[in-house]
Amino acid sequence: MTEVILHVYDVTNSESDKTNSTIVQINKIFKDGIGLGGIFHSAVQVYGEDEWSFGFCEQGSGVFSCPSGQNPMYTYREPIVLGRTNFSIFKVNQILRELSREWPGSSYDLLSKNCNHFCDDFCERLGVPKLPGWVNRFANAGDTAIEIAENTVFRLRQAKTEIVSASKVAYRFLVGVTSGSGGGNDSPGNSNRGSPKFQATWFKNIINAGDKPSSGSEIESLNNNALQKRHPQNSSLTMRQFSRSGKTTEMEFPRA
C-alpha cells in the first residue's frame, strides 16, 4: 500500500499580475474565509516523486507529470492525503496509460473536463476518496448553470410545440362541432370552415390571443367568426379567455 496525495494550486497562470493577485484573493475569501471553494489546479501523486494531472494541448494526450508541488504555471497551496491504494506500481502505471488514451488534450474544457475532473477519475480508479468538494465547486456550479439554461431553452421550445399541437386539435374539434350544427357538410359555410384560409385565420387568433376554446360561449364565438367569413359586413370578433369570475383576460403566447 502507498499513499495517494492530492496537490492543490491557486490558478495564477495569467499574464496579468493583477489578475493573478485577484484570483489568490478570491480563493482566500471563498475557500479560507467561508469554505465554499475557489479557482484551483490539482494533481495526484502516487508512487515516486512526480504528480500527475491534465491540461489542454492541440495534439496527443493531455495527461502530464512534473515534480510534486513544483508546477511552474501555478502557485502551490497545500497537499491533501486522500488515502492509500492497494495497487502495485505496475497496476498504477497501467491505469495511467489508460487515462492517457482516454484524456486527449484537445478535449479539455474548463467547466466539464478539467484537471480536477481528471484527478477525480484517477482517484476513483485507485480506490481512494475523490477530491474534496471545494476543489472543483466553482467549475461544477458553472457546468450546472449551463445545463439548467440549456434545459430551460429546450422546455420553452417544447412548450411552443405543445401549444401549437393543442391549438390544431382544438381547431379540428371545433370544426367538427360547427359542421354538426350547420345543417349539412355540403353547405358553403361548412366548406369555408374547412378551408385553409379559415384555418389559418383561426390558428392566428389562437396564437395571438392565447385563447383556449373549451366552453359553449367560446364555441359560439368561433361560430360567429366563421359566419363573418360569409358576411363581411359583421363587426370583427375579439377572442378572449373567460375566467370563472366572469372577467375577461387576453393572453399572449409566443409564436411557433
Provide mean pLDDT, rounded.
Answer: 73
Question: What is the 3D shape?
Answer: elongated
N-to-C order of helices and strands: EHEEEEHHHHHHEE
Whole-angstrom Rg = 33 Å
Secondary-structure-derived class: alpha+beta
Bin the strand percentage. Answer: 15-25%
Share of helical residues: 40-55%
Number of helices: 7
What order do the strands of the largest sheet run in, or round the barrel if closed?
4-3-2-1-5
Our measurement of the CA-to-CA distance between the termini, rounded to an integer number of angstroms, reads 62 Å
Q: Which regions have little confidence, pLDDT < 50, spanning 5+ residues?
A: 142-150, 183-188, 210-214, 230-246
User: How many DSSP E strands?
Assistant: 7
The main sheet comes to: 5 strands, antiparallel
Features:
256 residues; alpha+beta; 5-stranded antiparallel beta sheet
Can you tell me about this structure?
The chain has helices at 17-33, 89-102, 115-126, 137-180, 188-193, 196-209, 216-230, and strands at residues 2-10, 40-45, 50-54, 63-67, 75-85, 241-242, 248-249. It has 256 residues and is of the alpha+beta class. A five-stranded antiparallel beta sheet has the order 4-3-2-1-5. The chain has a two-stranded antiparallel sheet with strand order 6-7. Helix 4 packs across helix 6 (196-209). The longest helix has 44 residues, at 137-180. It is elongated and about 85 Å long. It starts with a strand and ends in a 7-residue tail after the last strand. Residues 142-150, 183-188, 210-214 and 230-246 have low confidence and may be disordered.
